[in-house]
Design a protein that fits this description.
Chain lengths: ~325, ~290
């Protein structure tokens, strides 16, 4: 029922320029320039405390920037906030429901404010709340049900843009899959989806592009494919030798296509950027007469990229031991700023 | 925008209407009216319903502010602390809609309480004392409603101005204590220091102006204009001013014709002052704060 007003920035769902938020000495968001195109699913990734929620709060006029500005659907987030809210569906972080009101009453309230003609039952069904649940006071709901209810409120009125802050929190794996389904189906309806998470795999599965935020700064923006290309043939190769590795470190380091070699005991760990360097290392070592007793190769995962980008502070991302410490150093040099 | 105010107000009314605490207070108010009427009917002969009406002034001036403050002090800050305000402001209503919607919704709850208490008094007055003093009753009800709304505004204003529940409660309780327990110390005390004597009946004009700014005095002064008999303000008394002066209106204490700001109707201005100023401060601070 709302027509998006036609402006020069028509094709931009969200645009921030120099967006900054300082709390005293602490800079929560630092000079953020971010563009989210109309119709895309954008994952806003970063460890807890990176400034994701602060950014979203500024987009929604919950918090005011110290410097810079933001537009949402072409409207200024501060001065034209009243134009934005009817067109946007919001699932905030750290929200609560009204414990004394029923689930259904929540949806009806959202419908009323958006002057939307949605059928509450259909919305409730879409987010997986049964008719019996809808009649109950929302105060009795579990965290996951509250999340579903709030998602339902965000979907009311078929928004042009869905802003979801940590939508997967409180959901079990099944709920997370449903949430991802929902994001996909919203995207198919032409809705732009902007959602934040500290868990890469939740973002990876549904996003066209992701932006990685760390300590208030945007450290990477790319498509999932682009980020994979970034890693390229990156891998860590670990060689178990029969003699002390330190003597052979220089031999391996001379091989082209690797960025780092560390020796400890009889183990040599090489950070590979060019796939052909693997064979190169093996050949070079064999030429010196060294005996290679074992060899392991680990591909660099997107997760390790994320870990590297966020300086390992994203400990909740399920970072596993597969990715060595060296690959981080290798990737940091290639990360677009 | 105005439609958002009423939508938020309706939600507030639904929500507050499910609060057991509020219903207990409303029940207490109505219960006291019933008990009072029955007791007067049982013990006092020869009274009219109009005279009995003034009896209502005592429970109302105590319970109404308390109920209104309880109904309002968490209005905005409670949602800020729980986080439901993010859900609310993520929808089309903006901060202005939220503040005034809450004010309206909670006013409606308190209004309902006042209406119930007065309906019961009207019926019991007719049953026990055989008359319906309709004009007195309506005037008294209107003044009581304004009195209740004043305290809702005060509480909602405070709730919008602060960032924690504790601060809101401290300010609201503190103000109530000032009105009930500390007012004489804060007004007659300085008078004593300035003039070496407590305020006499015909006190300095500035004192009469200041003293009447207690919303409870404003309420009893106004109510005494419409009901027969007299309602005394519920106050801690420290004996700082002359005994005669207690319970006299500023207009009665002023020598000669009182200026407009000391006349009884000025109590309406006083009540509106305590409604509007906290709401204005709360609005100003709430609009500018980060949630």
């Amino acid at each position: 029922m709302y027509r998006r007003h036609v402006v020069a920035t028509e094709m931009t769902a969200i645009e921030t320029s120099g967006l900054t938020k300082e709390y005293g000495d602490l800079t929560a968001v630092d000079d953020l320039d971010l563009t989210v195109d109309d119709g895309e699913v954008f994952g806003f990734l970063g460890p807890n405390g990176a400034g994701k929620s602060t950014t979203i709060n500024m987009l929604l006029d919950f918090a005011r920037p110290t410097a810079g500005s933001a537009t949402v659907l072409g409207y200024d987030a501060q001065t034209e906030a009243d134009e934005i809210s009817p067109r946007v569906g919001v699932l905030p972080e750290g929200f609560d429901i009204y414990p004394r009101l029923s689930g259904r009453r929540h949806i009806e309230f959202a419908s009323k404010t958006k002057a939307a003609g949605d059928d509450p039952d259909e919305i409730l069904d879409r987010v997986g709340l049964s008719a019996e649940d809808a009649q109950r006071s929302a105060g009795d709901y579990s965290k996951g049900m509250r999340q579903r209810l709030a998602t339902g409120m965000a979907l009311v009125g078929d928004p042009d843009l869905l802003i979801m802050d940590e939508p997967s929190s409180g959901l079990d794996p099944h709920g997370i899959r449903e949430m991802q389904e929902l994001v996909r189906s919203e995207a198919e309806r032409g809705t732009t989806v902007f959602f934040s998470s500290h868990i890469l795999e939740h973002v990876e599965a549904v996003c066209d592009r992701i932006g990685v935020l760390n300590e208030g700064e945007l450290v990477a923006v790319d498509t999932i494919e682009g980020l994979r290309d970034e890693i390229g043939g990156g891998a860590t190769m670990t060689l178990a030798l029969s003699s002390p590795a330190a003597e052979l470190r220089a031999v391996a380091a001379d091989v082209r296509g690797l960025t780092d070699v560390t020796a400890s005991g009889r183990t040599l760990e090489c950070t590979i950027t060019d796939p052909s360097a693997k064979a190169g290392v093996v050949t070079a070592l064999a030429d010196t007469g060294a005996t290679i007793e074992d060899l392991r190769i680990e591909e660099v995962s997107l997760e390790s990229l994320f870990t590297a980008l966020t300086n390992g502070s994203g400990s909740e991302t399920g970072t596993d031991a597969r990715s060595g410490t060296g690959d981080g150093a290798a990737l940091e040099t290639e990360v677009p700023r | 925008m105005s439609s958002h105010v009423s939508t938020v107000a309706r939600k507030e009314f639904d929500d507050a209407g499910r609060s057991k605490l509020l219903w207990s207070l409303i029940g207490l108010l109505v219960g006291l009216v019933v008990i009072g009427y029955v007791a007067i009917w049982y013990t006092v002969d020869d009274v009219t319903a109009a005279e009995v009406l003034s009896f209502l002034g005592t429970p109302l001036q105590v319970i109404l502010p308390v109920a209104a403050l309880i109904a309002g002090y968490m209005a905005v800050v409670g949602e800020r602390r729980s986080g439901s305000i993010k859900l609310l402001l993520g929808l089309p209503p903006n901060r202005t809609d939220v503040l005034f919607g809450k004010l309206l919704g909670r006013t409606a709850v308190v209004g309902l309480a006042v209406a119930l208490a007065f309906l019961v008094s009207l019926v019991l007055g007719a049953v026990f004392f055989g008359s319906v003093p309709f004009v007195d009753w309506l005037g008294f009800a209107a003044i009581s409603l304004l009195f209740g709304i004043t305290f809702v505004g005060l509480a909602v204003g405070v709730s919008a101005a602060v960032s924690t529940r504790g601060k809101s409660m401290a300010i609201v309780v503190g103000l109530y204590m000032v009105f009930v327990a500390l007012w004489e110390l804060l007004t007659a005390g300085p008078y004593h220091l300035l003039y070496d004597e407590g305020p006499p009946v015909e006190a300095e004009t500035w004192y009469l102006v200041l003293d009447q700014f207690n919303p409870i005095f404003a309420y009893t002064n106004l109510a005494n204009q419409v009901v027969e008999g007299s309602i005394f303000p519920f106050q801690f008394q420290y004996g700082l001013q002359s005994m005669e002066a207690y319970g006299m209106t500023p207009a009665e204490r002023y020598p000669g014709d009182a200026p407009f700001y000391l006349q009884e109707w000025f109590g309406v201005v006083v009540l509106l002052f305590w409604l509007a100023v906290p709401v204005a401060i709360g609005y100003y601070r709430f609009e500018r704060t980060d949630l």
